Amino acid sequence: MEKLLLLLVEPLVKDIKKIKIEKEREENRIKYILQIPKGDIAKVIGKSGKMIKAINSLLKLRAIKENMYASCELQEV
């Protein structure tokens, strides 16, 4: 699922190497924390949060296939 996150975020940021992904796991729940540079965070959030909501939706759909629950949170670096 980390590859999916990078695939979705890659076109929105200038340098994909500056993005860090942390993973917190509890039983069948996974929470991904994306650390994104200050200049790119607005693009990832999108207008009215539509982009990050779409990313979360796709991540949740992928997690369902594995009988998991996944979510994504952003942090500014």
UniProtKB/TrEMBL annotation:
UniProt key word Protease: no
Molecular function (Gene Ontology), one example: RNA binding
Family matches, as InterPro entries: KH_dom-like_a/b (IPR015946), KH_sf_prok-type (IPR009019), KhpA (IPR020627)
Superkingdom assignment: Bacteria
Keywords tagged on the record: Cytoplasm, RNA-binding
Cross-referenced PANTHER family: RNA-BINDING PROTEIN KHPA, UPF0109 PROTEIN SCO5592
Protein name: Uncharacterized protein
Source organism (scientific name): Candidatus Curtissbacteria bacterium RIFCSPLOWO2_01_FULL_37_9
Lineage: Bacteria, Candidatus Curtissiibacteriota
